[in-house]
Amino acid sequence: MSRDPQTITIKVGFGDQVRELVVTIGEGDIPPYQVGDRHDEVGQRRNRVDAVAKVTGRARYTYDRKGAGMLYGKMLRSPHANANIRSVDLSKALTMPGVKAALDFVEVFKDRSARYAGCSVAAVAAETEAQAEAALDAIVVDYQVLPFAVTTEAAMAEAAPQTGRGDDRNVSARGLRDGESAADFLARIADQDQAVQEAMKGQTVVSGRFSTSVQTHSALETHGVVCDWDGDNLLCYCSTQGTFGVRRDATASPQLRARNARVVAEYVGGGFGAKFGLGREGVAGALLAKRAGRPVRLMLDRREEHVDGGNRPDSFHDLSMAVGRDGKIVALKARNWGTPGNGSGGAGARNQAYYAIPLVDKVELNVRTNAGGARAFRAPGYPQGIFALESLMDMAADAIGLDPLEFRRRNDPHPIRIHEYDLGAERAQWQKRRNRNPGAGSDPIKRGMGMAATEWFNPGGGGASCLVRIMRDGTVEVRNGAQDIGTGTRTVMGMVVAEELGLRIDQVETFIGDTRDPQGPGSGGSTTIGSLTPAARLAGYRAAEQLLGLVAGQTGWKAEDLRLRGGMVVRKDGGRLPREMSFAQACALIADEAIEVTEKHPMVGSGRNASANYEGFADTNSGLQFAEVEVDTETGKVRVLRVVAVQDSGKYLNPKTAESQIRGGVIQGVSYALFERRIMDRHQGHMLNADLENYRVVGALETPEIDVVLVDVANGKNNTSVMGLGEPPTIATAAAIANAVANAIGARVTSLPITPRKVLEALAAKGRKR
Amino acid sequence: MRSFKMAQPRSLAGALAVLGGDDDKVRALAGGTDLLGLIKDRIAAPEMLVNLKGIDGLGEITETARGLEIGALVKLADLAEDARLRVGWPAIHQSLLETATPQLRNVGTLGGNLCQRPRCWYFRNEHYDCKKKGGTRCFAHDGENEYHAVYGNGICCIVHPSNLAGPMIAQEAIIEVAGPEGRREVTAEAFFTSPDEDVLRENQLAPGELVVRVILPPASPKARSVYVETRERQSFDWALCGVSVVLTMADQEIEAARVVFNAVAPVPLRRHDLEGMLEGRRLNEATVDKVCLAAPLGANPLEQNAYKLTLMKAVLRRALNRLKESAR
Ligand SMILES: Cc1cc2nc3c(=O)[nH]c(=O)nc-3n(C[C@H](O)[C@H](O)[C@H](O)COP(=O)(O)OP(=O)(O)OC[C@H]3O[C@@H](n4cnc5c(N)ncnc54)[C@H](O)[C@@H]3O)c2cc1C
Q1: What distance in Å separates residue A692's CA from the closest CA in chain B?
Q2: Distance separating alpha carbons of residues A424 and A451, to the nearest angstrom
Q3: Among partner residues A130, A675, A755, which is closest to B2 by beta-carbon distance?
Q4: Domain range for residue B14?
Q5: How much is the mean pLDDT over chain B?
């Protein structure tokens, strides 16, 4: 088989929008799944392969690893919202009962700053959890306590205390002058863009201030590790979204100097972007284990998880949009600010997205505060930015007297979403369910419907390999060392291989989450499926090729006429073979123990110009969500009755797990819309709701009916034609709900979450205006 | 979690003997759904817990000449299923259905519910030395107070957490207490302690005393009762505001009324003024409107919780409307 780049013609698209493309595919790659392909396994609704293990508790997560001889690791956390550490004294703690090791983080991490309440400063490992806790109390830390600012507003204020280190200022923005306050800066640049100012003249202009709250990831399994050393080799069970990243951290860490590290995450109790890398807790766990010469388990508790496990920044948006008489958007002006806490990232809110907006004047401010740092969170920047943008879109539609759906359609350049408007409107009964008379009527319960759009862009990338092993006894193993964070990665990886081998998913064994197996991506940016399944499919294809070669050698049939299907060796052209041969019989021909094939995600070109993807039908995958709500105008309570989620994700390899993924995104979106927010105390700077009681996460009773409409698109950007689906389904939900609330009550809540208090305040404000 | 010793008395006398007088050191343990959380959060640090669950005779519901007698260790779930309670004391029954979650109701007890500590997030955070913990300051008063009290919040802004407390007062429950000095009975209304009286506690129990029983005197056949609450989230949440209303009707006229709000004040808030407005009136739309308008009278909302005044009107309106409809 030639392994040179091949130029081929593929058919991409969906429905009646099918296009032929001439693409050069990677060295040794096989043509992408395309329009008209028929599959037996791929595209079927399959249960996730680990479903039973998960619901019966047989699946073992990092959190479940408890064993003889294991020590419990715990971290001490600063009670001050802003402090420098003068010294940490471990001597007393080290003499406490059961204590086997202790760490001073000033020494370990060379960091004297504790810039938020809950910042870790020391750690111990002891025989029992209670002993470890008692030992923490015996650690003496000398803090130099500093003034603090825990909210975005407080840190932006004129005389705000400095929240960061060195001479870092609280507010950073392009163009911000030395010594200039945020307010002065915003005033100075208010009309900076002449083109936008000009374009807005004479047009209909709508403006609004929108805001969203800090959302913590709240994955069910907290961050943490169970570490064990064998000489210089580290074995690390880790609740992670990136086994290989954790391995890299462990071997690169100057504190650990592991010669080799094996990272295992066979099951992960959720990850929304905060679980990449070993983190302080991972380094501490590993180092405690090294010092104690015993395995150590260090898992965060719920409070630590909220405070120090990452979050989505809050956001504030001053937006203005100008719309022409033809219903086309002319220009957008956006001023945004928000806080990544004391983390390193920005607060970036995406609200110049999707629509054809000819002119955008956007300025963004990052505000550092004395609070736990932000980390990537499922579509970073999107749910907050899109909430603001889509709220404004509805206001604009209203202002020019256009139906909000029609207004979007007029401004939407996406070929797939244009089709989705019709699909969604019909499924959601948009015309019928919209409230024609928002807020009217004597019944205190009002109904409304709103919508919003979503978009994402990840067809996967390089850096993934897959091992397929066909044993002489007919057993098939599919292996990759990346993790399945609950999305169904393991299942679809097995399905694409099963397809090539003519088997069902339950006839192959899948292994995932162990860095001894071939390399795989971190699960972030919705990259996993697009990176991994093309490698898996190719490995399956090559393994089948080898097996059929053996068959040909033994039978004299021509290998190129054969394929595997339905557990049999069959003729590609459907004709009859002289005799029947099953997959198992074919495997019996294997002379060695097994056929083993490892394939990488194929790349086109080489070096810096290498690309993991081909030209496809569209570079982004699109979607729409429609929400129907009921608002109790006396109690301010919002109930989401139904969400219709129309979603394109390229080719749907397994519609069932894909639907689950979309439902999960919607559920998290409902939670973001109505409940989730970090509450910081102004007096001493602690997070006050670092629990799952006052940090409310959506429950079963608040989960709406979710109607998923899959738009299957043979996208052609990789050999399985998929696009990532981790992020897109959570982007539009809160925006759609906010628009539905406005449609119900005729007053807009411009701040997330939409709590009873805010609804009542919005109604009262509307009442006053009358 | 800090370790502690555990006593397993078989009798009430045995329990009282170990309990002694130091509340900080020795604490009664019923379902543990509240107490264990307090220990984990390092708000309580008892050296010994006295497990009440082995005591005979505190887990029964019996009907006697005095009414329905409910042992302190009766699980909330069992109480919620009791048909006599459902028919005879609807406000209490309805409030139970809205208490916590099925899982918690399967473990939590009546005594524990009445004696649970407040949920104020400053009180529950070890880093805040608030008045309720013997400190000098109420952090909620000028802090984050969206869920706090709108009445009686001068010293301490907690709201009493128990769903049952309000309807117990409305339905005139009697709480039987046992201690080293013997037994005594307190009306539910007198049982709960406001911060002005003693900010360190929420009820009249002296150290070493236990709730052993709650007695619900038979309701008048002319009485109707209802409980209505609203909360932010339906699953697993606390009331933002609730109200219990008991009306004794003489024909179409309200002869006697009891109106008790919960989640708006440090102790359940009985509203004699509203009761007075109801008594002698017919239960019609005009009455409902008038009384609801007056619901938030006397409130002293803080920076973030004025919306609770609207909720008071809303729950009261629903409660009265429900009674009005059931009268038809
Ligand atoms: C997430 C969550 C949500 C909740 N939501 C609600 C709600 O909506 N409404 C509501 O009313 N409650 C709610 N609760 C509280 C729950 O109802 C109580 O925790 C429970 O009723 C306490 O009962 P227990 O038997 O577990 O008490 P324990 O935890 O055993 O005891 C609680 C306290 O009472 C004392 N005590 C126990 N029994 C006696 C006795 N017989 N005499 C004297 N003192 C005693 C204990 O010493 C302890 O101080 C919620 C709790 C949680 C965790």
Answers
A1: 9
A2: 9
A3: A130
A4: 1-51
A5: 96
Residues with Cβ within 6 A of ligand 1?
Answer: A 693; B 27-35, 52, 72, 76, 99-100, 104, 107-109, 111-113, 115-116, 161-164, 205, 210-211, 236, 238-239
Global ipTM: 0.97
**Ligand 1 atom with minimal separation from the B107 CA:** 26
Q: Is B144 on the interface with A (CB under 8 A)?
A: yes
All domains of chain A in start order, with CATH: 152-215+311-385 (3.30.365.10), 223-299 (3.30.365.10), 403-459+616-769 (3.30.365.10), 460-609 (3.30.365.10)
**pLDDT tens track for B174-194:** 999 999 999 999 999 999 999
Domain annotation covers residue B244: yes
Write out chain A residues lying below 8 Å of B2, CB-based. 130, 133-134
Q: What sign results for the dihedral spanned by CA atoms A550, A551, A556, A558?
A: negative
Q: Say if the Cβ atoms of B237 and A688 lie within 8 Å.
A: no
Residue B31 CA to ligand 1 centre (angstroms): 7
Segment A20-38 mean pLDDT:
94
**Count of residues in chain A:** 770
Q: Give the model's confidence band at A770: pLDDT under 50 very low, under 70 low, under 90 confident, else very high.
A: low
Q: Is B155 within 8 Å of B272 (Cβ atoms)?
A: no
Spatial distance between the Cα atoms of B85 and B88, rounded to a whole number of angstroms: 5
**Does residue B199 sit within a domain?**
no
User: Residue B163 CA: which ligand 1 atom is closest?
Assistant: 11
Decide if pLDDT at A5 tops 80. Answer: no
User: Can you give A130-163 as a three-state secondary structure string?
Assistant: HHHHHHHHCCEEEEEECCCCCCHHHHHCCCCCCC
Distance from CA of A129 to the nearest CA of B (A): 7
The reported pTM is 0.97
- B161 C-alpha vs ligand 1 centroid, how far in Å? 9
> Which helix (H) or strand (E) segment is B147 a member of?
none
SS3 of A412, please? coil
The pLDDT > 90 percentage for chain B reads: 95
Please, what's the b/e burial string for A83-92 (b: 16 or more CB within 10 A of its CB; e: otherwise)? bbbeebebee
Specify if B278 maps to a domain: yes
* Residue of B147, B233, B304 with shortest CB distance to A699: B233
pLDDT tens, position by position, A180-233: 999 999 999 999 999 999 999 999 999 999 999 999 999 999 999 999 999 999
Q: Which atom of ligand 1 is nearest to the CA of B35?
A: 29
